[in-house]
């Protein structure tokens, strides 16, 4: 039901010029001879974890690994068409991909391992503004960002979402904000980790699905409210750890 809901919603929005924030070229999924070896070691590890988790949730079948590799490699080729060439000494700008694609993996699980359905959804989703915040590799070295922003290697999730989370935290949860300040560790660091990993390893699968659906249906600002609500939920634990 969730897959159908976000699929229809995104398909409807991607047909409207007013809602298409990013223009993307036509890309036809290639029937690549999928070999896991052609993925980086980080991606290989991510694929193993995703497939293991998907089987644990009874969402994936035995041949799911090939389907996920197919999705990841096509996403890489699709996003590569919209990347800048940047000469930089920063390690994050020298790599061809921005780590493991947790968002694409989450959609693959939501679509029960249907690779064509997943790719179609991601291509339509890439037109929308919310894709910039939910799908981290979407704007890696992107032509949609100013050259100076790309050269700094800082993702919009950090200077938009994480910045607003810190501002809201100060107003909504001053004690939590002070606890972070005393620890010398910023809330934006942990939020960036949560968001990059789509809350994998932090929330249950149903909650991860709710997070993705809420942000798609209600807008990218709900990513900020979600993080604030998690900090509110953890407030007592955070204060207890600060005292200890």
Automatic annotation (TrEMBL):
<dbReference type="InterPro" id="IPR055392">
    <property type="entry name" value="BROMI_C"/>
</dbReference>
<protein>
    <submittedName>
        <fullName>BROMI protein</fullName>
    </submittedName>
</protein>
<feature type="domain" description="BROMI C-terminal Rab TBC-like">
    <location>
        <begin position="1"/>
        <end position="243"/>
    </location>
</feature>
<dbReference type="InterPro" id="IPR035969">
    <property type="entry name" value="Rab-GAP_TBC_sf"/>
</dbReference>
<dbReference type="Pfam" id="PF23440">
    <property type="entry name" value="BROMI_C"/>
</dbReference>
